[in-house]
Amino acid sequence: MDKPNPTLDLIAERLERLTAAIERLAPPRASSADLAAAECFVWRAENESLAPVARVNRVDIGLIVGVDRVRDILVDNTRRFAAGLPANNVLLWGARGMGKSSLVKAAHAAVNRGGALKLVEIHREDIGTLPALLAILKVAPHRFILFCDDLSFDHDDASYKSLKAALEGGVEGRPDNVVFYATSNRRHLLPRDMMENERSTAINPHEAVEEKVSLSDRFGLWLGFHKCSQDDYLAMVDGYARHFALGVATETLHADALEWSTTRGARSGRVAWQFIQDLAGRIGKPLS
To answer: How far apart are CA 288 and CA 65, in angstroms?
Structure first.
């Protein structure tokens, strides 16, 4: 019979204590999400859970003007997906402040009358956990728009390869009940200097650039947003003013709105909304 070994017993005891300490430090693994609890969720990568959003930050689709063509395309794609028909991943790209993310949320609300279509936001820094999220969504009895706002990748970021595989290129492919919508200021999601550097240093420059550009190719629809004209900008201001019944004369409203855009050095949907917030505050009118 072997004699007790105090050293081994001590090591085993310390390993057990160390394991217990690590488990206490780790974030708790959440139970399955109640997908009936909300129509929108945020993916929490730290514990691989879906957090319901009680109040979604969005505007009515009727308030998004100046982008009629891309609005109609996105709503049609969303409606087909909600109906169980084939639909494309969508990349909304272009000028900042022109309502890309607002349009995604508004299109979801416009189509989701019965509550079966869910919107799930995944943050840019959590793209590496996309396979874990898809594993949860693919077995759920709902259809999901997976939404990533301001998607882009830096020089040393290789997580775009995980996104490529998850969208179309993996063995399993994208689940039938999931479609991916992303917004970005970049059409190809990667810095131009990164692509040019790949071209200059690679043995085969064409193949190196193709590797980077192929990520955007995973999106079947590219919807471009461009800087708005003065007329479009004023139409946005008018729409907000009517919706919130601000009661300001059109001539005064336009003059103030143009002065506001001049001080900001830009005209966009975001600038129009910021002006309306300032105006409503000055006249003591709540925006509800």
So the answer is: 20
What's the burial of 255, exposed, middle or buried (CB within 10 Å: 0-12/13-18/19+)? exposed
Residue 19 in tokens:
């394991």
Beta-carbon-side half-sphere exposure of residue 40 (alpha carbons within 13 Å): 16
Average the pLDDT over each of 56-60, 201-205, 240-244 and give the range with the smallest value: 201-205
Which residues of 185-255 form beta strands (DSSP E)?
A: 221-225
Question: Which CATH architecture is the domain 40-225 placed in?
Answer: 3-Layer(aba) Sandwich (3.40)
DSSP string, 6-62: HHHHHHHHHHHHHHHHHHHHSPPPPPPP-TTS-SEEEEETTTTEEEE-SS-----GG
Going across the sheet that includes 221-225, the strands are 49-52, 40-44, 117-121, 143-148, 178-184, 90-94, 221-225
Q: Per the confidence metrics, is the pTM higher than 0.85?
A: no
Query: For residues 184 and 93, is the Cβ–Cβ distance under 8 A?
Result: yes
Pairing of strands 117-121, 40-44: parallel
Sorted by where each begins, the domain ranges of the chain are 40-225, 230-283
Amino acid type, 190: L
> Which residue in this structure is represented by tokens 């943050």?
123
pLDDT digits (tens, 9 = 90+) for 10-50: 777 777 777 766 655 654 444 456 888 899 999 999 999 99
